[in-house]
Amino acid sequence: MDNLLQPLLIGACVGAASGAVGAFILLRRMALVGDALSHVALPGIALALAFKADPFWGVLAPLVLAAVLIWWLEGRTSVPADALVGVLFTSCLAIGVLTIPNTEIIESLFGAFPRLPAGFLAGILLAAAGLMAVSFRFAGKFLLVIVDPDLARTEGIGRGYDLALLLIFSLVVALGVKLVGTLLMGALTIIPAAIGRNLCRSMHVYMLVSALAGGATAVAGVLIADAFSVPPGPSIILLGTAVFLATLVFARRRHHVSRTAGS
Q: How far is the C-alpha of 148 from the C-alpha of 143, rounded, in Å?
């Protein structure tokens, strides 16, 4: 069980942060954009491995740069965000696959059971908790920017909040990439939020349920991965998908009851 302590802690904290920020990514209709954005980290991983550095630092820089670039281009071109990310994603994926050593590529794409120094682990956990707290703290402003950009501007809430949301997403992805992998980490922000959306109507409850779903599925996925000796990333995502499908049934029944009550 000691060997599982680190992945369980990372799964709980990063999974919860992923669900919280994923609520806004889903509301902004950037689910596929968010997923693709996580893949721009691959060239950074290759560069970090080439210089014998920790891949985390190779992940962090490209993600932050990509978030800033997408935000900057959105304000200066008519090209939609999904097209911009699509170009970045395919280019970075191709570079990463060509440059990451074969022995490292599976772990980079699908995650592994991390063994980190205590200070590094504490930094990841504290950063995940901080990002989740920021997501809840500015939930109202993020929501207003997404739902009514014109009203947000009149309230003095500018595009800086769009950038903040992209940066929070990028940082959360960087924190979880060691456990879940670059190919699947974006999905960890989407699936818990989709689960929460099936179960909740209130925004704050939606965020809370999404965060709980992210943490719970990540922890359970780590335990399943350990039991079957498989990478944790696929286990976490497949478990989350199963829970999402189960909540779809609940959502359909609730919708049916609401329609019946209204008729």
A: 8
Residue 50's CB is within 10 A of a number of other CB atoms, namely 12
Distances (CA, A) of 13 to 7, 57, 87, 124, 126: 10, 19, 31, 9, 9
pLDDT of residue 260: 47
Backbone angles phi, psi at 93, to 5 degrees: -65, -45
User: Which residues of the chain register pLDDT less than 50?
Assistant: 256-258, 260-263
| Cα angle value 97/100/101 (rounded, 5°) | 120
Question: Residue 16's pLDDT is what?
Answer: 97
Query: Which residues, 6 or more positions from 24, have their beta carbon under 8 angstroms from its beta carbon?
Result: 135, 139, 142, 143, 146, 165
Q: Are 213 and 192 in contact (CB under 8 A)?
A: yes
Global pTM reads 0.84
**Domain 2-262, classified CATH 1.10.290.10, yes or no:** no
**Cα–Cα distance measured from residue 238 to residue 225, given in angstroms and rounded to the nearest whole number:** 11
Give the per-residue pLDDT at 263: 46
Phi-psi label, residue 29: left if phi above 0, alpha if psi -120 to 50, beta otherwise: left
Q: Parse the chain into domains and list their residue ranges.
A: 2-262
Tell me: the pLDDT tens digits for 38-91? 777 777 887 787 777 877 888 888 888 878 877 877 777 666 666 666 666 667
Judge contact between 184 and 15, C-beta under 8 A.
Answer: no
